[in-house]
Design a protein that fits this description.
It is a single chain. By secondary structure, the protein is of the alpha/beta class. It is built from eleven helices and ten strands. It has one domain: NADP-dependent oxidoreductase domain (TIM Barrel). Helix 1 packs across helix 2 and helix 3 packs across helix 4. The longest helix is centred in the first third of the chain and has 15 residues. It is globular. The two termini are about 30 Å apart.
Length: about 325
């Protein structure tokens, strides 16, 4: 049985002493026009964790919102946690620093709290002045556009990430979307260990071995898409029948606690020891997503939600790469 955690802290303490806010604002698919205002609204609501990436295409707008909040005294930089990610086209070590510096410039920051390798996928370089962010296609105007994979050992990319931390551009480095074997191999050869592993986690993709292994290795876990299907419905990558928010198990537990299904699922995520980064454009839901620290799920309730596991991965390059980008590129079994 999983233990209940009624006194769950709102931040995860990392081995370096850093406090990683357990709830952050995901900025994937956040429209550019709304991003500055939404970031300011989120900070007013209490958010101190922003999850960003080059590939999201909105870092300048997120940076503008953060800069306005700092300027207006709504937060202090030392209290904010900002994550960004290295895109696939910058895996060659000679491109890693420039990619990081571009994100820093767009976000109007001197240092990132965390910089992650977005995918274990190395694609051919696309210069900034050709296209930024470069996205997945190497040449969108080609007769048959496709991804253009290149051979770059992950360890080489990681070595360049380590140099970013040594240079003071980032406080910590981490990974996304690795399987356990890849993560174990990285740990065997790295000089600086990943502080965080960001991966898809929700009640229909529970990944208990990943979570247990990261906890064993003292690597914090960020759960992206912590509510599952809703992020993928507009993209045609999920069906309405796959929403955990309407699952009878979740709705019954939510009703028992006087909480919404979303709050119940998010509570399950943080109670497992993960940071979560739900995305919303609703001011009401911004506050709702933070209001998960005044109740606890019992061990039986935790187990009931974990028992919903369908091994349903929505964000799988081995699937969407072929459908959307004419390239079969599996990274998961």
């Amino acid at each position: 049985m999983s233990p209940a955690s009624p006194l769950l802290p709102s931040a995860i303490k990392l081995p370096d002493g850093g406090l990683f806010p357990a709830v952050g604002l995901g900025t994937w698919k956040l429209p550019k026009p709304e991003a500055p205002g939404l970031v300011q609204t989120a900070i007013r609501a209490g958010y101190r964790h922003l999850d960003c990436a080059c590939d999201y295409g909105n870092e300048p707008e997120v940076g503008a919102g953060l800069a306005a909040a700092l300027r207006d005294g709504r937060c202090r930089r030392e209290d904010m946690w900002v994550t960004s990610k290295l895109w696939n086209t910058y895996h060659e070590p000679k491109h890693v620093r420039a990619a990081c510096e571009r994100s820093l410039r767009d976000l109007r920051l001197d240092v990132l709290d965390l910089y992650l390798v977005h995918f274990p996928i190395a694609l051919a370089y696309v210069p900034f002045d050709v296209r930024y962010p470069p996205e997945w296609f190497h040449d969108p105007k080609a007769a048959q556009p496709a991804m253009k994979p290149i051979d770059v050992p992950y360890a080489d990319t990681w070595g360049a990430m380590e140099e970013l931390q040594r240079a003071g551009l980032v406080k910590r480095i981490g990974v996304c979307n690795l399987n356990i074997s890849m993560l174990r191999d990285l740990l065997a050869g790295c000089s600086i260990r990943p502080a965080v592993h960001q991966l898809e986690l929700h009640p229909y993709l529970v990944q208990p071995r990943q979570l247990r292994y990261c906890q064993q290795e003292k690597i914090a876990v960020t759960a992206f898409s912590p509510l599952g299907a809703p992020s993928y419905l507009p993209l045609g990558m999920a069906k309405t029948s796959e929403s955990v928010l309407t699952d009878p198990v979740v709705t019954a537990i939510a009703a028992a606690h006087g909480k919404t299904p979303a709050q119940t699922v998010l509570r399950w995520g943080v109670q497992r020891g993960c940071a979560i980064i739900p995305k919303t454009q609703s001011a009401a839901r911004l506050s709702e997503n933070l209001a998960i620290f005044d109740f606890a799920l019992s061990g039986a309730e935790m187990d009931a939600i974990s028992g919903l596991d369908r091994h349903r991965r929505f964000n799988d390059p081995g699937h969407f790469g072929e459908l959307a980008f004419n390239t079969f590129y599996p990274i998961f079994d």
